[in-house]
Write a structure and sequence with these properties.
single chain; about 350 residues; alpha/beta; Rossmann fold; 2 domains; five-stranded parallel β-sheet; 18 strands; elongated
Length: about 350
């Protein structure tokens, strides 16, 4: 299902830069080369040339533009994933159309994306250096799926199931959109627990992600808005750029305080807010992602008597967030991505011993 990359941390990350603009190739290449841990090994101006270069150079990472002649970024990505699996970082424009196409690229196997900042309608490539270098180095450590994940049927649950007073909080980062597209569609349509999702993603992208997940799922998925109420079978995705918290009445609020773990929205902030309100009824789920966001929140959930599930290393694109939570001792179950929905349902349904119900 997935293939690990052979990049050694002692060596420089070897990168192929693909963009139809000679100016963009020059700027991106210069920014990457300025990082002592990165080596630019080649350039390509379109998808066909990119495939030739990937075969010849075997880079650790490819940065891939979306809009190109002869073969666009999505088709090129498909060919790379199928023929020469190589971690790929998409270079995307911050537009509604760019967001939708970027999310499709992530579903097709891209590891991550960086934004081309725009000022007065013109890309400002010089301002993307830090984000670009960081994500390229992260991508070099990623496990890459050799085919798209397709959600199977909803998690098993028999008629007459009695649901616990439970709220589920899912947190993820790099590789998260694909992981969510595996988990959320498998939640049964009559699940009687509300779900909150925090995916590290900038403004302008979370609305598209919510829309895509909603189209795949039997439960309803929406982007968060202030004042929303929790509902059974409703999944609320944190809006990019805002921490998602719950007020004392249980309604969604935005918190624009400082970033935590370098991100906003932060999984920790949402988990802390939910735990204060729901205590032991909180079920935390940590999926793929770089860093340690979710570890503090998982600790608070466990201290309150709640439970935490983490994705296993075998299926995580980046085994950073789940590893951090597991190593901190805050995990009740570590399971592969295809079993996360089943585990959520199992831990949200009252057992036959306590209810006499037939599950």
């Amino acid at each position: 299902m997935a293939q690990g990359n052979n990049h050694s941390p002692e060596n420089k990350v070897r990168v192929l830069v693909v963009d139809d603009s000679a100016f963009a190739r020059s700027v991106i290449g210069r920014q990457l080369a300025a990082d002592p841990e990165i080596e630019v090994v080649g350039y390509a101006g379109d998808g066909l040339e990119a495939l030739e270069q990937v075969r010849a150079l075997r880079p650790d990472v490819v940065t891939l533009d979306i809009s190109m002649p002869r073969m666009d970024g999505l088709e090129t990505l498909d060919r790379i994933v199928q023929e020469i699996p190589t971690p790929t970082v998409m270079v995307s424009a911050l537009t509604a159309e760019g967001a939708a196409i970027t999310l499709e690229a992530l579903e097709r196997g891209a590891v991550d994306f960086v934004l081309k900042p725009v000022r007065a309608g013109v890309p400002v490539l010089d301002s993307m250096s830090n984000d670009l270098c960081m994500k390229v180095k992260q991508a070099a450590t990623a496990r890459i799926a050799t085919h798209s994940r397709i959600a199977g049927p909803s998690a098993p649950r028999k008629a007459g199931a009695k649901w616990k007073d439970r709220i589920v909080v899912i947190g993820c980062s790099t590789g998260g959109p694909n992981a969510l597209a595996t988990v959320v569609p498998r939640l049964p349509p009559d699940i009687q627990v509300p779900v909150l999702i925090v995916q590290h993603m900038p403004q302008g992208f979370t609305a598209s992600l919510a829309e895509r997940l909603n189209g795949l799922s039997e439960i309803r998925v929406v982007e968060a808005r202030p004042g929303m109420s929790l509902e059974p079978g409703l999944a609320i995705l944190a809006a990019g750029g805002h921490h998602m918290v719950l007020g004392t009445s249980g309604q969604v609020k935005f918190d624009d305080g400082p970033a935590e773990c370098g991100v906003r929205p932060s999984v920790n902030v949402t988990m802390e807010s939910v735990t204060k309100l729901k205590g032991k009824a909180t079920l935390g789920v940590i999926l793929t992602g770089m860093g340690s966001d979710g570890t503090r929140g998982a600790g608070l959930i466990k201290a309150a008597g709640g439970e935490v599930i983490a994705e296993s290393a075998e299926t995580s694109v980046i085994y950073g967030m789940p590893r951090s939570v597991a190593e901190a001792g805050h995990v009740d179950a570590v399971v592969p991505i295809g079993e996360i929905a089943d585990e959520i349902v199992r831990r949200s349904v009252l057992s036959t011993r306590s209810t006499g119900a037939t599950l």
